[in-house]
């Protein structure tokens, strides 16, 4: 089998498509034959060493987080799945490995793929869906009738956040590029601002939650847009922000933390409420390094980038 891996932290030139031997799943783990993997910015951030305090110094390291596929082996104690089940979800954060023909991951990082959802669509849901849920439900505890502003509302996490906020009964506003504004409105955002031409500090409306899914909004601006007792969700965790969040009711630092319950809820939403993320481009595994490199260097897509393993 083949996967994308690297032998030291650094730039895109370090990625290699190579053969590897899949380990056997340990307790609570499963082996997945990957059908599709979705590319996320976290993939190259991990390879660049931005989280090496967590990922460590063992090489080669595999790449990729989001998958869809079928279970081929189960470890001791696994109860959620059996061999042959169609699933979607995430690879283990430290080990990664979604950008390959097979991967080992935790059973709690997966959900059964609904029959009504394609493997392509399912591969897109893991990181964006879990991150949106972690922010809006776990951190901000959004309730029906609240007003939510999503900065970057047509990025992957942004689009997931618009849909999750609408599922929770919130009224959604947001910012994105001019060319994506209609897509944001189609998802359920009522008021949408072009981030290139609108000074958000002049927006008069105030919100219960501001979710900076673009990780580009100054915290002072986010606070300015909040109502009293509003919550600002920050997707760029640093040690200093975690410390500030301990003493602040406003600042909530969001880290993607998938759970079985969250992924099951996303699966239900994908079936009943048409929870989807658009797919812009799909390439075979042999062309994945070139696409990852282009995206890392600034290429923009109007949707998710997928890698097909077949």
TrEMBL record:
CDD domains: MDR1. It comes from the Bacteria. GO terms for molecular function: oxidoreductase activity. Gene3D superfamilies: Medium-chain alcohol dehydrogenases, catalytic domain, NAD(P)-binding Rossmann-like Domain. Residues 10-307 form the Enoyl reductase (ER) domain. Signal peptide: none annotated. InterPro entries: ADH-like_N, Chloroplast_QOR, ER, GroES-like_sf, NAD(P)-bd_dom_sf. This is NADPH:quinone reductase-like Zn-dependent oxidoreductase. It comes from Phyllobacterium myrsinacearum.
């Amino acid at each position: 089998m083949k996967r994308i891996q690297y032998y030291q932290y650094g730039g895109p030139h370090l990625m290699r498509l190579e053969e590897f031997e899949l380990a056997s799943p340990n307790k609570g783990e499963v082996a997945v034959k990957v059908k599709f993997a979705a590319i996320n910015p976290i993939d190259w951030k991990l390879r660049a060493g931005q989280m090496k305090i967590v990922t460590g110094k063992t090489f080669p390291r595999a790449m990729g987080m989001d998958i869809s596929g079928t279970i081929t082996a189960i470890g001791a104690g696994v109860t959620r799945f059996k061999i042959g089940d169609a699933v979607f979800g995430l690879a283990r954060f430290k080990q990664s490995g979604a950008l390959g023909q097979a991967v080992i991951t935790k059973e709690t990082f997966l959900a059964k793929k609904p029959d009504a959802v394609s493997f392509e669509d399912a591969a897109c849901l893991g990181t964006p869906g879990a991150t949106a849920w972690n922010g809006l439900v776990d951190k901000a505890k959004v309730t029906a009738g609240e007003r939510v502003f999503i900065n970057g509302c047509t990025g992957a996490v942004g689009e997931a956040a618009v849909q999750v906020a609408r599922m929770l009964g919130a009224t959604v506003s947001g910012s994105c590029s001019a060319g994506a504004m209609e897509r944001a409105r189609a998802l359920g955002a009522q008021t949408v601002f072009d981030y290139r031409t609108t000074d958000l500090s002049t927006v008069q409306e105030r919100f219960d939650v501001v979710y900076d899914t673009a990780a580009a909004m100054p915290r002072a601006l986010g606070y300015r847009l909040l109502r009293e007792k509003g919550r600002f969700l920050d997707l760029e965790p640093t040690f200093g922000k975690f410390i500030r969040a301990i003493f602040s009711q406003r600042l909530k630092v969001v880290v993607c933390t998938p759970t079985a319950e969250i992924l099951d809820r996303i699966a239900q939403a994908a079936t009943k409420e048409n929870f989807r993320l658009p797919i812009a481009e799909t390439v075979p595994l042999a062309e994945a390094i070139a696409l990852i490199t282009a995206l890392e260097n600034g290429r923009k897509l109007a949707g998710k980038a997928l890698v097909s393993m077949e």
